[in-house]
Design brief:
Blueprint: H1 2-27, E1 41-45, E2 48-55, H2 57-60, E3 64-65, E4 68-69, E5 73-81, E6 90-97, E7 102-111, E8 116-123, E9 127-137, E10 140-150, H3 158-178, H4 180-193
Parallel strand pairs: 4-10
Antiparallel strand pairs: 1-2, 2-3, 2-5, 5-8, 6-7, 6-9, 9-10
Helix pairs in contact: 1-3, 3-4
């Protein structure tokens, strides 16, 4: 009976740990340089600042991402002008798949009076990407780049691995509780290791 309680407690604790890990994975936006854990990347465009942030609301709600977008599919890409003067200037945006700079999205330079530019981009291939921001002001052109990855985590994203591990723990616990043969085998193994 003591072995049964130990195994049951261990599986419950492992399940809780995996769920907490999943929450931390989805809450961490993968902030890159300048972004820390906020999930946003700040870039300089001459003397001006722009913030690049990506969201996958269908997957993680409002969790922001910068250096790593966790899954393939649609992502809301947001460029926020931290410097209000940019609202009166001509700014363009481009996203390319690397290597080779294959264009995935392009917004020609125009004035963005609201100070924010948002567009949904559908990422169909994992790998490295670059977001490019171009400011054209008084005959000068300023460029900034934000490198980021999409669904690059060793074939599976961290969130997918946590979900798979949680399901496997739940299946193991179900097998232990419902099958006398599995229960006996596990109890024998635990007695040997004790």
């Amino acid at each position: 009976m003591r072995t049964h309680n130990f195994f049951k407690t261990t599986l419950v604790m492992l399940g809780l740990l995996l769920l907490a890990s999943a929450g931390a994975t989805w809450a961490d936006g993968g902030g890159g340089p300048g972004g820390g854990s906020s999930g946003a990347c700040r870039v300089s465009l001459g003397n001006y600042l722009v913030t690049f942030t990506a969201y996958q609301p269908q997957l993680t709600g409002t969790a922001p991402y910068c250096s790593e977008i966790p899954e393939l599919g649609k992502a809301a890409i947001v460029f926020d002008f931290e410097t209000k003067a940019l609202r009166n200037m001509t700014v363009g945006f481009e996203i390319t798949k690397e290597p080779g700079a294959t264009r995935v999205f392009y917004q020609p330079p125009v004035v963005h009076a609201t100070g924010t530019f948002t567009r949904d981009v559908n990422f169909t291939e994992p790998g490295d990407y670059t977001a490019r921001i171009t400011l054209i002001h008084e005959g000068q052109q300023y460029d900034a780049q934000v490198p980021f990855g999409v669904a690059e985590a060793h074939g599976f994203s961290t969130s997918t691995l946590v979900i798979i591990a949680t399901i496997l723990v739940a299946l193991g616990y179900f097998a232990y509780e419902s099958s006398p043969a599995v229960k006996a085998s596990v109890d024998r193994l635990l007695k040997k290791s004790a």
